[in-house]
């Protein structure tokens, strides 16, 4: 976390000007290899930078730390590949309750997280069920850092639109509590 951000509420938007040092705030990411992902059956690359980011919740128990979140990521990948017939885990990234970020499909890869929106969007899932439970400040901060990082590295357009899964599909995802919290993020435009 940047020293200038200490004590600030991570749900509040941060300036995204070029002097903010966004590249330096890229969160540490647990790689697919580190959490034990199986190889994807196929992958497609995005044509360019994502124009929107779609936030999800996994609607499962929350987790924190490499071991419990890694196990949950493997469970989700198995469910997506075996149960839904996806080529891989559907999300580009997943975030644990302690703020750990896990690589799903990763940057620049078309996800399988929001029908009719996958080709030009980044899918980020917070691990937990946020219909009545609030997401942790650490997870919200990590999500914001990941979005800033995507912009700084050219994977996400600076004028991207941030949406909840419910904004693009008939679902309650990402849960009322997470949806309320993300309304405070920069670029949120339901």
Would you mind describing this structure in some detail?
With about 190 residues, the chain is α/β, with parallel strands linked by helices. Helix content is about 25%, strand content about 15%. It is built from four helices and six strands; from the N terminus they run E-H-E-H-E-E-E-H-E-H. Strands 1-4-3-5-2-6 form a six-stranded mixed beta sheet, sandwiched between helices. The two termini are about 30 Å apart. Mean pLDDT is about 90; it is low at about 1-25.
Which keywords apply here?
4 helices, 190 residues, single chain, globular, alpha/beta, disordered N terminus
- The assigned structural class equals alpha/beta
Mean pLDDT: 88
Measured distance between first and last alpha carbons: 28 Å
Low-confidence spans: 1-24
Strand order of the largest sheet: 1-4-3-5-2-6
- Helix coverage percent of residues? 10-25%
The radius of gyration is 15 Å
Largest sheet: 6 strands, mixed
Q: How many strand units?
A: 6
Tell me the overall shape. globular
Q: Determine the number of helices (DSSP H or I, runs of at least 4 residues).
A: 4
Strand content: 15-25%
Give the ordered list of helices and strands: EHEHEEEHEH
């Amino acid at each position: 976390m940047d020293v200038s951000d200490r004590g600030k509420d991570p749900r509040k938007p941060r300036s995204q000007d070029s002097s903010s040092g966004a590249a330096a705030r890229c969160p540490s990411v647990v790689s697919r290899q580190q959490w034990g992902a199986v190889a994807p059956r196929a992958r497609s690359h995005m044509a360019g930078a994502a124009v929107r980011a779609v936030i999800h919740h996994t609607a499962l128990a929350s987790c924190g730390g490499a071991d419990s979140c890694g196990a949950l990521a493997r469970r989700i990948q198995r469910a997506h590949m075996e149960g839904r017939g996806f080529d891989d885990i559907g999300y580009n990234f997943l975030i644990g309750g302690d703020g750990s970020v896990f690589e799903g499909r990763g940057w620049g890869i078309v996800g399988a997280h929001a029908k009719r929106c996958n080709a030009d969007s980044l899918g980020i899932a917070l691990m937990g069920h946020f219909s009545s439970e609030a997401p942790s400040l650490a997870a919200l901060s990590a999500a914001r850092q990941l979005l800033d990082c995507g912009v700084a590295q050219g994977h996400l357009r600076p004028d991207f639109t941030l949406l909840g899964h419910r904004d693009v599909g008939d679902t309650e995802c990402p849960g009322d509590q997470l949806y309320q919290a993300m309304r405070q993020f920069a670029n949120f435009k339901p």
